[in-house]
Amino acid sequence: MGVSASGKSTVGARLAQQLDVPFLEGDALHSAPEIAKMAAGQPLDDADRRPWLAALSQWIRSAVSHGRGGVVTCSSLKRRYRDELRSAGQGANVSFVHLSLDRRSAAQRIARREGHFMPPGLLDSQFAILEPLQADEPGVTVDASAPREQVVAAALRAVAEPDG
User: Fold this and answer.
1) Which pLDDT band, with edges at 50, 70 and 90, does 86 fall under?
2) How confident is the model at residue 160 (pLDDT cuts 50, 70, 90)?
3) Is residue 106 part of a domain?
């Protein structure tokens, strides 16, 4: 989880590869109208996100029902979104790795990124709604400005030791 350009896709793919589990890039489940809205510089609201969260939840339910783990990348900026995704896990260990990045670093990364629908202008809206992981939520916060392999290693430790 984290704001745009925090490294979710890169870290998530590497994490899934190292864990040998399926990987889902959550952006792939956004509808065409949602993508168009964001590309036009308009942030999604909770109503816009409802079908996307339902699709992510369905993917999690399917992974659990098939007895496999998985890694999903998505912003999960609000606690209630994370609660919904955890609930979809039906008691399985669903935890979050918050890739924490300051606004300046995120803006620099977005400026260098090519071919993504998320414009730099939406970054402020993401930071405005970001609710960091709370102490009672399973997961860990990782400094996303660290070298990528350190970030992946911290994520691996977090899922290997979900209580610690």
Assistant:
1) very high
2) confident
3) yes
